[in-house]
Amino acid sequence: MKFEMACPACSNRSTGSWYHDKDGCRGSYMEMSNKGILKCYKCSLALNMANWRFDCSAHGGGYRAMNEDSWRKAMGIALTLPKADRLTNQVVMELNRFVTNHPEKFGFSGY
Ligand SMILES: [Zn+2]
Ligand SMILES: [Zn+2]
Questions:
Q1: Is 10 strand, coil or helix?
Q2: Using CA atoms, how far apart are residues 92 and 59, in angstroms rounded to an integer?
Q3: pTM for this model (two decimals)
Q4: Range 96-110 average pLDDT
Q5: CA 38, CA 74: separation in Å to the nearest integer?
Q6: What is the pLDDT of residues 4-48, one digit of tens each?
Q7: How far is the CA of 111 from the centre of ligand 2 (A)?
Q8: What are phi and psi of 75, to 5 degrees?
Q9: What separation in Å is there between the alpha carbon of 63 and the centre of ligand 2?
Q10: Residue 59 Cα, ligand 1 centroid: separation in angstroms?
């Protein structure tokens, strides 16, 4: 699924699409798997989402790791987006379940 979500590293609630900030990759997009692997569509770099750093216009100060509260907020928003089609909703729910069952993979303490 295309990674279009609120920032998982701060309390910003506006959603947007993300890109890999690297020459040649800007303007492309990111894909999120139902197991939390975030991949750059352009260069195919794929890492656990906990290993990416996120920058958005709201939090300032540049790149930040995601954190549990902000991740939960982003998931909650993703599930209520009116444009979410059934497939996307399913990936979001599977991902949510996976993170809940494997919080240690993402540096979370657990729900
Ligand atoms: Zn942010
Ligand atoms: Zn890339």
A1: coil
A2: 24
A3: 0.91
A4: 92
A5: 15
A6: 999 999 999 999 999 999 999 999 999 999 999 999 999 999 999
A7: 31
A8: -65, -45
A9: 16
A10: 4
